Q: What sequence folds into this?
């Protein structure tokens, strides 16, 4: 057989597989419609989106993956299939910290897939308000974001808001040099958020020692500015390059590889147990010797591991400190439930912000 004949044979096989895949994906979509019909028939407030079920499905796909595709890769494909199936009912409305092209938008699409409708907001408080009002189904806000620097603002909102955490998203952050210039030598100005500039300082010192660095409020704003100035560049994401028609002049220019940031999904409800969950809570104690130790001992007593603790001044005058604590496990799990009961007795304040699946993607 000639190589052309061999290729034709494999291509024929691919065409047959594609037809079969298409049939199966459509059959899956019909099943999703059946789920909706059954739920509708039972009346009451219908909730189509099930974060715990989606997390279970994605975890199973990763486990069952026989290769050669990477587990992350197959999970991403199934993420999009589920997103499209769910959108058959009604695309979810997701508010995020804009403008378009921010890492928060990338996080929203990573978590929900591309079949949702994303709506940019200028401030984190606007996102909380829109979700509280029901204008958005969920919101996505940065919580440990090394680029936008708004962690505290998100944490402060939880002190006042009745919203709960329904999910978390982690995103690897890569910075690129974007411009309309034809060569790097033509660049006189570099725009970006100050933290992104700081994260690329070494690279900028070497490649653009004479260009002025100008800090702006978001990386998407930087991309917008670079789009209108051929002597300027922006340090921003690939999404921003596409959105503002900029060329990627240099890729992955961050000094520290492996920079990951975390986002939270906020909604009117948290998530039922998925098998691998986290619980976030807000705790407070008086400023006295041993108070923090006593506050956290219920977790240690139950053998629960704490994955994060962040302290904030309470601003309410009543309590000195407020701690944002993440622990492993769902609030419905006996050990976590027991620790929470103990905490309620000991802490001045114990507000459970929600239990949600650990990020799968
Ligand atoms: C509404 C449901 O399913 C939705 C659709 C899913 C899918 O396409 O696999 C998964 C979870 C839900 O977001 C449900 O299972 O009750």
A:
């Amino acid at each position: 057989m000639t190589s052309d004949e061999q290729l034709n044979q494999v291509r024929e096989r691919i065409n047959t597989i594609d037809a079969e895949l298409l049939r199966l994906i459509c059959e899956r979509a019909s099943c999703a419609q059946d789920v909706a019909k059954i739920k509708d028939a039972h009346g009451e407030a219908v909730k189509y989106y099930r974060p715990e079920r989606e997390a279970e499905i994605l975890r199973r796909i990763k486990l069952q993956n026989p290769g050669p595709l990477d587990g992350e890769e197959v999970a991403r494909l199934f993420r999009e299939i589920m997103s499209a199936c769910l959108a058959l009912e009604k695309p979810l409305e997701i508010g995020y910290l804009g403008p378009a092209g921010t890492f928060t938008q990338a996080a929203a699409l990573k978590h929900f897939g591309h079949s949702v409708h994303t709506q940019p907001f200028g401030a984190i408080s606007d996102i909380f308000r829109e979700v509280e009002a029901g204008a958005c189904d969920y919101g996505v806000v940065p919580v440990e974001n090394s680029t936008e620097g708004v962690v505290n603002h998100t944490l402060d909102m939880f002190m006042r808001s009745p919203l709960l955490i329904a999910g978390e998203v982690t995103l690897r952050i890569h910075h690129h040099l974007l411009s309309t210039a034809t060569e790097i030598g033509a660049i006189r100005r570099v725009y970006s958020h100050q933290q992104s500039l700081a994260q690329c300082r070494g690279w900028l010192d070497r490649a653009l020692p004479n260009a002025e660095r100008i800090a702006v409020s978001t990386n998407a704003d930087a991309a917008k500015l670079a789009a209108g100035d051929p002597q300027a560049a922006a340090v921003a994401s690939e999404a921003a390059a596409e959105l503002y028609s900029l060329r990627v002049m240099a890729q992955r220019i961050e000094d520290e590889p492996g920079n990951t940031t975390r986002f939270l999904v906020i909604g009117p409800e948290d998530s039922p147990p998925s098998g691998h969950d986290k619980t976030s809570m807000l705790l407070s104690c008086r400023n006295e010797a041993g108070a923090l130790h006593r506050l956290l001992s219920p977790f240690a007593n139950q053998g629960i591991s704490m994955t994060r603790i962040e302290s904030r001044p309470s601003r309410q005058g009543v309590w000195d400190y407020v701690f944002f604590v993440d622990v492993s496990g769902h609030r419905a799990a006996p050990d976590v439930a027991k620790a929470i009961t103990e905490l309620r007795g000991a802490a001045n304040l114990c507000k459970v912000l929600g239990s949600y699946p650990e990020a799968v993607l």
Notes: The chain has twelve helices and 14 strands.
